[in-house]
Amino acid sequence: MAEAPGRKARATSTGAGRILVAVYGIFALSATARAAVQIAGKFSDAPLAYLLSALAGVVYILATVGLASTRPWARPLAWTAVLFELTGVLVVGTLTVLDAGDFPDDTVWSFYGRGYGFIPLVLPLVGLWWLHRTRAR
Amino acid sequence: MYDALALATLVATGALAVLGLVLTALNRPPGREFKIAVGVVVALLAVQAAIGAVRAFGVTLPEQSTFLIYLAVSVCVLPIATQFAYAEPTRWGGTVVAVGAVATLVAVLRLQGLWVPSG
């Protein structure tokens, strides 16, 4: 591929990028559904953890939309959402490892996403790499 | 849930995932045959979901609503992933379907874990 200077940004949702969009879409679905069940059924058990689940779900939805769309706002949205996601998994992961008592119930990001095969930890790194790779330069 | 049917769906989704990855490795966009394979797997999942839903209303499960949501997810993910994969016919389509197949496989495993009926 020609690396001509001044090249426009490539769409994030074509070629191999579609795999990323698919994985993000599945996490958006599962995190949101999980949060909905938690909040609807047993919110008082662990309000903080369940609100965090909902936040994670929203972040995955925004990241999916940002990566799937080619609109002008999509790329900044994707950068923001994926960076937030990386921060979230690192902060929540570290907090749960240090002191599980603050998180009485699991979220997607607990223990760096152990319950989800650590994909929540790897996914934002792949997302950032892909956004960097397809950027304008 | 019937163990034999669950096992069949696990094997089918696993095989579909491998097939999708093989297509990508062979540098081939998924074609008509692959779509038929997806259809067979989805039909199997739909049968399992129908039986699971009927049986879920006859017993008490600790997490009934979660179980029903996973049943719906187990049927819906593959058709959506397939639609998305075929919208842009490149070699990566097979992997997109494979991602959906693995997610479905995980959903079926969770269904098995949630099936602890009483009464």
Describe the secondary-structure layout.
The complex is a heterodimer of chains A (137) and B (119).
Chain A: H1 17-42, H2 47-68, H3 74-98, H4 119-133
Helix pairs in contact in A: 1-2, 1-4, 2-3, 3-4
Chain B: H1 3-25, H2 32-56, H3 64-87, H4 93-114
Helix pairs in contact in B: 1-2, 1-4, 2-3, 3-4
Structure in words:
- The complex is a heterodimer of chains A (137) and B (119).
- Chain A has helices at 17-42, 47-68, 74-98, 119-133.
- With 137 residues, chain A is mostly helical.
- In chain A, helix 2 packs antiparallel against helix 3 and helix 3 (74-98) packs antiparallel against helix 4 (119-133).
- The mean pLDDT of chain A is 89.
- Chain B has four helices and no strands.
- Chain B has helices at 3-25, 32-56, 64-87, 93-114.
- The two termini of chain B are 15 Å apart.
- The interface between A and B is medium-sized, with 16 and 19 residues.
